[in-house]
């Protein structure tokens, strides 16, 4: 049967395959999991609907899930983050050709419209011969949201009319669900009970899951992959430390050394971002709302400021908060000429792009895709990266393979846990067991030449741990 797909161009597959091959070399965790589990096929019978940035690293994840027995359908979780050659290579597969693809269905390309994005998200839930997937692998929670809203509106018998407060994207979601309901009034209601669980990649998606758990609306078990130590303390921090600078450089090629950069938020992403900018020689200022993170920033040597007090100084402003309205239209208008503004948090509501567009007389000029100059009536202008969407994936190619090998090993193990041990994970949000978190770290040490010290039996007894771990109590902060 032909492999369903909506990608830019299958002839890019060869270039994608070469990049995937090199990425595999840098993803020892995922490759070790392939070796360990290919024979036993723990994901046989799993139908995974995946929604994560369709990058080269994600291609290695997808092919690992398939090697472990899963069937997979994939969309990207952002309109700008797909690497078209990776998407093509996954569809074509190792055995196929562009004329005769033999890989995995992918619905993603760089530069989707929001309508296309939600159609692609919907497409990962359409499984011939089944009501839908039995697993979700999500990043930011959009795929999970679609199922939950679908079930909610099917129960109500109708999709509500958008209100004045609903943004453009939510109107589009309502439209997708209106069409779905008209075609099949119980599609999501039939699908949801078959879903054994979702594994969620990022801070913002996890936040949504805990909100649903609190409200009692969560429909299936969820694994909080983000808060595995080997995910958030590595991908969010060291990944952004690499890919923030990559994004700024590819977008602008402006020398960062000597400039003043403001990092909004000093959580895991903010810490990596601030360090990267300092590493380039920038003077880094930090804004925070949390006194603990503000104090950490101060102790790390950054000046903690309020954004409105430093607008005239800032050459670069980066949001890393996962919050909304962090940089307002007023802030944007007050920035110095040619200031660069970008977001590396998950959603595009950290920078008020709609408010910017409403400033009377403001003009938008495309310098190149995902780089826009906004000129104010007084003649000064600012540069906005990726239209306020995450710039490390919009302007560059996201985190490098080695760090994603940690995150995606966590994802793979989380999928195996939820799929094979449903009795251990009731409908709630769960964390990856610590021994598995430690295992993921262990899988990456050899490649870096790191030699781990082993506890003696008597040392282990003295510390009250097992020689083989876990080495820390759950409340340990790393
Ligand atoms: P976090 O919760 O560790 O850090 C966010 C920080 O922002 C917190 O310390 C919070 O106090 C602060 N904050 C919140 N509102 C603020 C405001 N109005 N002004 C200043 N500071 C404020 O979260 P984490 O893990 O750092 O993630 C941040 C965002 O980045 C999330 O949306 C997450 O999903 C996303 N993310 C993006 C990645 C990428 O590759 N672009 C990778 C990993 C996460």
From TrEMBL:
Enzyme class: hydrolase
Subcellular localization: Cytoplasm
Reaction(s) the record says it catalyses: S-adenosyl-L-homocysteine + H2O = L-homocysteine + adenosine
Cofactor binding annotation: Binds 1 NAD(+) per subunit.
Top-rank lineage group of the source organism: Bacteria
EC number: 3.13.2.1
Family stated for the protein in its record: Belongs to the adenosylhomocysteinase family.
GO biological process: L-homocysteine biosynthetic process; one-carbon metabolic process; S-adenosylmethionine cycle
Pfam families xrefs: AdoHcyase (PF05221), AdoHcyase_NAD (PF00670)
UniProt keyword list: Cytoplasm, Hydrolase, NAD, One-carbon metabolism
Pathway assignment: Amino-acid biosynthesis; L-homocysteine biosynthesis; L-homocysteine from S-adenosyl-L-homocysteine: step 1/1
Name of the protein in its database record: Adenosylhomocysteinase
SMART domains: AdoHcyase, AdoHcyase_NAD
Organism, scientific name: Quadrisphaera granulorum
Task performed by this protein: May play a key role in the regulation of the intracellular concentration of adenosylhomocysteine.
GO annotation, cellular component aspect: cytosol
Residues that hold NAD(+) according to the record: 202-204, 236, 265-272, 288, 344-346, 392, 399
UniProt domain S-adenosyl-L-homocysteine hydrolase NAD binding: residue ranges: 236-398
